[in-house]
Description:
- The protein contains five helices and ten strands.
- By secondary structure, the protein is α+β, with helices and mostly antiparallel strands.
- Mean pLDDT is about 85; it is low at about 5-40 and about 230.
- A two-stranded antiparallel sheet has the order 1-2.
Amino acid sequence: MDDLSRRNFLKGAGVAAGAAASGAALMSLTGCEVTEEGSKFPLTFPESEGYLLVDHVKCAGCLTCMMACSLAHYGVANPSLSRIQIVQNCFEVFPNDVRQFQCRQCEFPVCVMACPSGACHIDEDHGNVRVIDPDLCTGCGTCINACPQTPHRTIWNPETELSSKCDLCINAKYLGEEGGPGGRQACVSVCPMFAIQFTSTMPDQKGDAGYDVNLRNDATVLCNVHDFPVVR
């Protein structure tokens, strides 16, 4: 066996051993049953008592929700720190030029299952919201990479170099009022278009249809971009 082959073999063996050890620790931290016969994740997780719904058609792309989120959690107006994301695509036309992306508080939280330190966990004292404890977070980014959504709903904080995610404002107060499932959420409260709404009912977990819903009423006026002449 040449040096290169030997090096690759040892590297692969080391990765496999590390993965096995990390897997056992991970399943222990996330409430999995660990036995000599094998390990398995729980069949169910406690449901979150709160979720955010959005209507991308109503969204004006003003970023007010992002500023409010950053202010509520960090005291600064910095969209890079926001835990709700507004993405604008200049190559699209209305209504697909602006999209909102919020944490889904998933029924099966992969971020919680993947976190090796226990920082990303289910807060059973505050409505089973999926949260990240900054005091336990090591900044490994595992929860971000594990999130199956695009873009990832777990956010990297470039200032603290730690992961963060929407906690429904459990750890933030909007205008001095408590947040969480039973309180107020900054993004919901400030949206001038009423394009974000709180619900205690779990949305459909398949695709985005359960989270991106119609929040419009009879007073909502929608203009079709194709009805306007093209100015050249």
